[in-house]
């Protein structure tokens, strides 16, 4: 791994652990072992390095979201995505950045975060529409609203897990979302009461 890549990876980890405001160029140099001259050669400012690291975090998140777009049964893909093992106590690499005031107030740093959530929303809407078309969800559900709801459940689950230092609330939130989706399946006609004439 070259020094540029090492710097980006290190900043990516530190952003996830500490946030932007609490990550100094010195901390990046110390953890990566890359010298000051090399750091400033590749990234003249902390913001330049942070932007590269945010782009990396977004790139890491989106392949996981693209599992929603894969082949096969839509509800099975939703279930696999919701039940995927995650380190709930570390939170979402991308979502965590919305809690950092310096990222929130900087349109350039916030842009990759917003783009990641927009792309995730598109994937959610698509798989939910497929589930409706396949008769797995009722057709009176709004996939756009439901996509926002499911994304909010995941992000909120991280917040609850971190606040309580227990991954349980995150897992419960994901399982609860799945329970609600299953409850939103179309009613199956009950043929057991038909009598022979």
From TrEMBL:
Residue ranges of every copy of the HTH tetR-type domain listed in the record: 1-61
One Pfam family named in its UniProt record: TetR_N
PROSITE patterns reported for this sequence: HTH_TETR_2 (PS50977)
UniProt-listed Gene3D superfamilies: Tetracycline Repressor, domain 2
InterPro entries: Homeodomain-like_sf, HTH_TetR, Tet_transcr_reg_TetR-rel_C_sf, TetR_C
Organism: Auraticoccus cholistanensis
Name this protein carries in UniProt: TetR family transcriptional regulator
Keywords: DNA-binding, Transcription, Transcription regulation
